[in-house]
Amino acid sequence: MATDTEPTELKWSAQFALAHNTRSTQLPGDKILLPPSALEQLLAAAPIITFDSDRPHFTSFDPFNPYTHAAERQARAQFQDRHQQLPHPLTFRLVNPDNGRVVHAGIREFSAEEGQIVLSSFLRDALGIEASSVESSRGASPNGPSGSDVVMDNGEAVNGAASTKITVHAKQLPKGTFVKLRPLEAGYDPEDWKSLLEEHLRSNFTTLTNGEVLVVYGGRAAGGKREEFRFLVDGFKPEGDGICVVDTDLEVDIEALNEEQARETMKRIVAKRQRAPGTAEGSSVGGEIDVFKGRNGQVLDGEYVDFELQSWDRSQGLEITLSDVDDEEEVDLFVSPYSAQQRVRPRDSEHVFADTSSSYPKRIRIQPTNAELDGADAIWISVRAYPSESVSSVPKRFHLKVSVFDPRAKATNGEGSVEKIIHDDDEVQCKNCKQYVPKGSLFLHENFCLRNNIVCPQGCGQIFQKRSPALQNHWHCPQDTFTGNTPLSLQKHNAIYHTLQTCSSCGIDFPSLPTLAHHKTTTCPGKLILCRFCHLQVPQEGDPTEPPNPELLLSGLTPHELADGGRTTECHLCNKIVRFRDMETHLRHHDLERLSRPAPRMCRNVNCGRTQDGASKTGDTRAGTRKGQGPGNEIGLCSVCFGPLYVSLHDPEGKALKRRIERRYLSQLLTGCGKSWCRNEFCRAGRKNLGQEDRSVPTREAIPMVKPFLEGMDGRGYVTPLHFCVDEASQKRRTLAEMLAAEKGIEGKGGYGIEWCVAALEAENGDLEKARAWLKSWAPQRSEA
Prior knowledge:
21% strand; polyubiquitin modification-dependent protein binding; Znf_RING/FYVE/PHD; AZUL_sf
């Protein structure tokens, strides 16, 4: 129980040099990194918190006796628990001495270099720190800071560039209950940013500072840029310079900057809803598609229409075709499988397959052996209209079709191969347009063709009419083999293939969109996966700039799964403690043991539900023999059935044993066992219970009946069974085992042998459901044997 006195406020401040570290771009929200020495200083400056034990009094306390009062104080001081405690959450007030800007921040880690502080990009902007001021000393070397331009401890750089200093104060902020945000631009629709703002604050921020600008990132905008929603923090409760947003119910109020902005916002929202998906002026809704019927649709500039293929013949290839698009329009096709390794809809910057050419129809063919289809639950298809500089409000129409093809068959003419066309003898080829015309009209055709048509002078083979817009706009990329006939296609080509792209998750630059898309679907730390261990949708993590971990390559795990798979659990078969990531290999060993395990040896008694060597719950078919509790005989009976026949007599040829078995048979046939459950056909009571005639068998008839079963008593092998009466539990287990052995699965090829069924029921004491589980875990099926 803590003392009633309130702890004093934490007072600490220090000044650090701003680190030019690439990790700063990875810090989210208002997070900072401080050196480990800062943690030691904070602990030293933390107020002392005193905790008393639960015991109310240590001595015989009398409040009116000054001697006992002094003794009580001395005892409490001896047993009191005093320690220094940092407040939670730990928040700071950052000051830029160069311009006086102030912002509050939360701590991420104490892992920065000594004397340095690492800020997130949000805090850099809030403090007015430009990248050039921090990276000035790195400009002299393309490989980063060298020995000649390292920032010194006194703040002076060798090249004359001073490092930026940040003053850090420990500042405990009150829990916020209300905050007012003002959009900095008109047209923000709450449906677009409301959920994003909530997730952004919860995941990235510990504090809010009055007057700072929050930037919430959305999806890709019409121009391909990442969408941003910017809000000004304009007051909160309780009033002050800042508030803490952790472990509190925060009410958020969105208010326009002025009336003009509010009217413009409403106007844009109404216009947007008129072009909502599913309306006549908007894009199609998309939805499911199958291989039997195509889908017609329309898409607005910069928007996507998403389709989903749920089922198809996995042994056949897939061909996805986009057609019925005007030649002057730019509509692209993106495809990604939906699996544990791919969890997002295909987009221009994140897809597995794509056709972004300017020719129609567009086709994407996926072979059934493609590794990307392993474990795919569905195929996600997206159709996108590339936006022009002047975004059109008229949707572009298209037709989407999904079909299957035989991967072993050769491609037809429509699928890309060139089929040789046989021409008539009276047809000749025009030297200009390469078309075949009749010989009689060749002169007229060539005159007209040479006067009006022209072949592309750059060698692509396309034919254009002279003075046509298509010829004037025809282009060839000097860096690759792409061509086009419209200014929009050239603009799209340059934007896709010759524009530097930056990954939003790890900050790595790529020369084109396809390389960025390949990165985001393979090695990007921000790529979403479905973790096979925690069963959550999480980023795969890792560092794409470092060589791949050999264990990752061998196991096929992602960095997140490798770390998460380090947790341990108990194997449900052998009860050993195994790591999650090793469990699959561990279970494979169990499966190999299951297939190589020796089959149980059934008791020779056809009415007995036991094995000769005993079976354990862990699948051991020789458990009793290993413990010294084997059958104790060589005639094929279990120890229970052999017990009444045992005598301590030297009988190497088994003659005496044969006489005892003969007497056992005669006793059963003449008088019976008298048990109501007996179903032994060689027992008088068993025959009566089976509905047969209740009479004793004469000795002269019984001896010939018994004689064929008396072979093998010398331990040299046997082929005939024995028929002895057994206890009720053993007989029921044998009956259940025969029923289990008769089950052969849905296809009639599975099921388990009678010997395995007897062992399963013996190990599980006759419990049918547990016996089925035992068979599944430890026994090979008939088709596997």
